[in-house]
Design brief:
The chain is mostly helical. The protein is built from 7 helices and no strands. The longest helix has 18 residues. It is globular. The relative contact order is 0.12.
Length: 131
């Protein structure tokens, strides 16, 4: 099994840099409940590797992540979390709402509707009205 510890730490450092130390600490605490192996792999692969690649701005990585999560279904809490990330990285509420319209056409109305409900949760937590 690969040693993820360095990439895991790099991933958490990245989250702390872009979202704040409190968010990184909360993420580490949440993931700790899932076991070390899953925790290290999850953070190392996403935030230690992919999110730090060149070629795509962070806000567009989040845009893609939100779309994929909504299209998959069953990922409501992750959509809400990544909506917060997307807003922090410069996505606008209008862009995110339009993304759910796009999801509803290509992944189906139920997926778009559930995705929008998850987006609305993040908007409500920030006091943002639905566009």
């Amino acid at each position: 099994m690969p040693d993820y510890s360095e990439r895991f730490r790099a991933g958490l450092d990245f989250v702390a840099e872009v979202r704040g130390q409190e968010v990184a600490d909360a993420m580490e605490e949440r993931l700790r409940k899932r076991g070390r192996r899953f925790n290290e792999h999850s953070v190392a692969a996403s935030y230690g590797d992919v999110y730090q690649r060149e070629g795509l701005e962070l806000k567009w990585r989040e845009f893609a992540t939100i779309a994929i999560l909504a299209a998959m279904g069953g990922t409501e809490s992750q959509i809400t979390i990544h909506t917060h990330y997307g807003l922090d990285m410069g996505l606008t509420p209008v862009e995110i709402a339009e993304l759910m319209v796009q999801v509803s056409v290509y992944a189906g109305a139920p997926r778009g509707s559930v995705g929008m409900a998850s987006v609305m949760k993040a908007f409500e937590e920030r006091g943002i009205e639905a566009p």
